[in-house]
Amino acid sequence: MVTGTAAGRPPSPAPGDPVLVVDDLVVEHRNRTSGEIFTAVDRVSLRIGAGQSLAVVGESGSGKTTLAMAATGLGPRTGGRIELLGRDLDALGRSELRALRPEVQVVFQDPHGSLDPRQSVRSGFAELRKLQPERTTWITDEALLERVRLSPALLDRYPHQLSGGQAQRVCIARALLMRPRLIVADEPTSGLDVSVQADVLRLLQEIRETTGAALLMISHDLAVVRSVCEAVIVMFRGQVVEAGACEQVFRAPTADYTRELLDAMPGSRWRSRR
Ligand SMILES: Nc1ncnc2c1ncn2[C@@H]1O[C@H](COP(=O)(O)OP(=O)(O)OP(=O)(O)O)[C@@H](O)[C@H]1O
């Protein structure tokens, strides 16, 4: 459970209560030269509750990132309805939207690209604390680094002095500092050495369990999805071709495309039986 809400925050959702509900989301892009319209996300619906984890899988270009950004109000949307923490995003004014924004934190694929190279870990935290003074008093910098299994000795390091795994943990710490109700992790381990991938995934899991945040994970790696998420939606050319509990979808996929994804996994133990 999320506890100790800062002033003005929406009430803490109970485990399983809806954090994000998306209905018929559409994202279209217009080609500037030809004027042609490309539908990157085509009538996608999803729901994720507090403490739950949902993965979006699909090959490159299937619309995963576009969906995740639009679904959380962080990217453009052509149509559809989004409810974040019980609030219809279209019904909110600018200041209400701004107040809701810290509730969603995104961890990207390239940790070094996400961090300001001129900022030490400590000054990066300080900047966030200045932006959100009430929300961020709950933990010290040292304890925050300990929460992501990093030594407080790293506080005065700059991004180039951190390994990929350490930098990703700093990004996760920055997200955690905001006490978000929803963490979006966009291929959070694909830029990391195999040796540290599992640790970072475990950390995201642990944060979900201990804070009650919901986790929306984007990945093309089905092994990662299976190890972290309870539910999955499979995207192909902007549409959802299959959705359900991970266990069910991996054991008995119903869509040909899901079977192809499973079969394409190198040395897959989950190769579908046809
Ligand atoms: N601003 C944009 N203008 C035009 N087309 C776009 C824009 N952003 C994304 N697209 C297109 O939308 C489609 C979906 O892209 P998206 O990045 O969401 O896919 P993805 O599944 O996340 O892929 P990857 O795994 O490679 O990141 C792609 O064909 C992409 O080229």
TrEMBL record:
Entry protein name: ABC transporter ATP-binding protein
Annotated ABC transporter domain ranges read 20-262
CDD domains found in the cross-reference section: ABC_NikE_OppD_transporters
* PANTHER family associated with the record: D,D-DIPEPTIDE TRANSPORT ATP-BINDING PROTEIN DDPF-RELATED, TRANSPORT ATP-BINDING PROTEIN
Q: Name one Pfam family in it.
A: ABC_tran
Family, as annotated: Belongs to the ABC transporter superfamily.
Origin species: Nocardioides faecalis
UniProt entry keywords in alphabetical sequence = ATP-binding, Nucleotide-binding, Transport
A biological process (GO) annotation for this entry?
transmembrane transport
